Amino acid sequence: MSAVIVRAALALVDAKERTGFCFAIQDERVAAIAPFEELRKRFPNAAVREYGAGVALVPGFINGHSHAYQILLRGIGDDLPFARWRDEALYKIIPELSPEDVHRTFATAFREMLAGGVTTVTEFFYLNGSGNAHAEAVIQAARETGIRLVLARCWMDAPSAPAQFRESIDTAADRTRELMARFPEANICVAPHSVHGASHEMIRAAGEFARETNCRLHIHVAEAAYEGEQTAAQSGTTPLRLLESLGVLDERLVAIHAIYIDADEKKMLANAQASVIHNPVTNQYLGDGICDVAGLLALGVPVGLGTDANVNASIMDEMRAAALLQKLSRRNAGSFDAARAFRLATSVGAQALGVEAGDFRAGAYADYTVVDLDRLTAPASPLVNAVVYRAQSASIRETFIGGVLKAASESSS
User: Fold this and answer.
1) 4-59+362-412 has which fold?
2) pLDDT per position as a tens digit, 128-152
3) Which of 67, 138, 157, 367 has the greatest number of beta carbons closer than 10 A?
4) pLDDT tier at 413 (50, 70, 90 boundaries)?
5) What is the CA angle 141-145-149, rounded to 5?
6) What CA–CA distance (Å, rounded) separates 378 from 385?
């Protein structure tokens, strides 16, 4: 790809407003950030992409945890207690999907995400029991839509799980290695399901696999109260302390949810340099609880956002929910501001996943979205506040990945 110079009247850079913002794109990445005339000298043959009044450039949103096939559960699992939601919706529908079903469903979900400004998505993917065909369908859907994919390839061997989700340790490892070798662009990492969905032996093996291949290890942990009670009864400890005893609490760990953890466990995450992905809309939808995002951030734990069950695959919904839940849990409207919520969805979310995206900086992927200011209410408010508290997917005019247009609203076409 030849160089492109992007010139924007207004942009959000690290959650701060910048006027007259310019950067150059080369080989899918931000090559330089400088005044326009300087970039013209450095890249004399570059095309120029201009954004004037009425729009703002925003880094592409990072969706740190998704189960895209759960868009099929909309309207079916609504308002059910968790156990019934799992058994009567998730376990009833998802195991029956063919690779072709997965491809169609994920392409639909990915397009929905792109339309809402999501440029990177981590798919925590279960349907691996019969081989890699289903996972390959996910990768193909990402390739066709253009979304940047992190495939968190689930390992699961609990007898209570559907057969379509279960594998032996050796089989899971072999199939994951095969995917890594064939699809390096899919950023494949290992994802033992949870302390109740994967055996202790499988979780240990996943940790060894992550160290051997230098990948992240994603795992659901401390999501609901019942999990802690079950783990205490079976193992005499908490889910996070169990992960520590199994040797996976380190800098590769991406803890999904991390709601029911105590003060010492928060420090354990920080000392291990682990990350957390917060899923505030799904946590409300399933009645799970509220993650102490502010407390984790204060300790230096990177926290990102995920759409999880994809009740509505909108990171803007997640930003808004994250901010409001922190205010509510502290009974203090000033305890968590829009800029912090915005960073969860962009730069800090990218840090949590180890993805070089989420902000306008030299060397990062040139993933960004164009926000239509005319579609925001209270346009006189600070831009970051308008995006976090009032923007909707309809506010997104265009979405670019690696500097290439991947989605556009009808009004921009």
Assistant:
1) Urease, subunit C; domain 1 (2.30.40)
2) 999 999 999 999 999 999 999 999 9
3) 367
4) low
5) 65
6) 10
